[in-house]
Amino acid sequence: MDHFMKAAYEEARRGLEEGGIPIGSALVHRGVILGRGHNRRVQLGSAVLHGEMDALENAGRHEASVYRESVLYTTLSPCPMCSGAILLYGIPKVVIGENRTFQGDEALLRQRGVELEILQDPQCIALMEAFIAASPELWHEDIGQV
Amino acid sequence: MDHFMKAAYEEARRGLEEGGIPIGSALVHRGVILGRGHNRRVQLGSAVLHGEMDALENAGRHEASVYRESVLYTTLSPCPMCSGAILLYGIPKVVIGENRTFQGDEALLRQRGVELEILQDPQCIALMEAFIAASPELWHEDIGQV
């Protein structure tokens, strides 16, 4: 796990320790982390702060040119909302910890020219597998499934 | 303008009064507004709280079944991020104030089975036209354009 995915994974772990959904993310611009974050559904009662969204939010406001030179790291394949945020800001590359436990809108991202690197990292997989087994209802709420 | 688009429009006007980007939204479940909100980029330094996202956030956490019986009202055509949120939660219908000043990811929404009703409301158009003319840089930042 490289430095940036480790930051995303640490965020995911922090989310779990807070009683939340263990998905973390970091927005990296030219080798510098602009923002990192984790899913806040439980902690803030949030319907929009998935890990990727929290990282974007914590990174603050930027001009389009910054996003277009950035890479988004996330422990889990990005859902449709987070994929849409990646497309809105024209982020050209996403490094994904794993897509075994959930596959988001990867086809759309690729179709729109976003480069995806999928690590299938054993720690990311183990974290989500344990969470989904322990809290299936919370997980289904987070991904908009009955 | 019906009751719910009026709520979205009032939110947009409130955003303008706060010095922000005048886009508003309301999430409506079986005729009841669950949440309403407006773009908070300027007010909160937010990269993710577009009008639609703010309405979803203010509506709070819900099970998938609630979203699937809801209609999202928004004064402006939803950008890719907000379109992604609509897809994540399976919101079946979006009523759009106008798409003259900006057209979001309507093709993707329709392709995924979301019903769109576009009003081309003169007040919504006038509000955005005046804002874009006055603050083109802020507007470009909000939609991820250089």
From TrEMBL, chains A, B:
Q: Which SUPFAM superfamilies match?
A: Cytidine deaminase-like
- Record CDD domains: nucleoside_deaminase
Tell me which cofactor or cofactors this protein depends on: Zn(2+)
Example of a GO biological process term: pyrimidine-containing compound metabolic process
Q: Which GO terms describe its cellular component?
A: cytoplasm
Q: What is the lineage of its organism?
A: Bacteria, Pseudomonadati, Pseudomonadota, Gammaproteobacteria, Oceanospirillales
- Pathway note: Pyrimidine metabolism
Superkingdom per UniProt? Bacteria
UniProtKB keywords: Cytoplasm, Hydrolase, Metal-binding, Zinc
Q: What class of enzyme is it?
A: hydrolase
Subcellular location as annotated: Cytoplasm
Q: Which GO terms describe its molecular function?
A: cytosine deaminase activity; diaminohydroxyphosphoribosylaminopyrimidine deaminase activity; zinc ion binding
Describe the subunit structure: Homodimer.
Which sequence ranges form a coiled-coil region, renumbered to this chain?
none
Q: What is its EC number?
A: 3.5.4.1
Q: What is the recorded name of this protein?
A: Cytosine deaminase
Ranges for domain CMP/dCMP-type deaminase come to 1-116
Entries under InterPro entries matching the protein: APOBEC/CMP_deaminase_Zn-bd, CMP_dCMP_dom, Cytidine_deaminase-like
Q: Which Pfam families match?
A: dCMP_cyt_deam_1
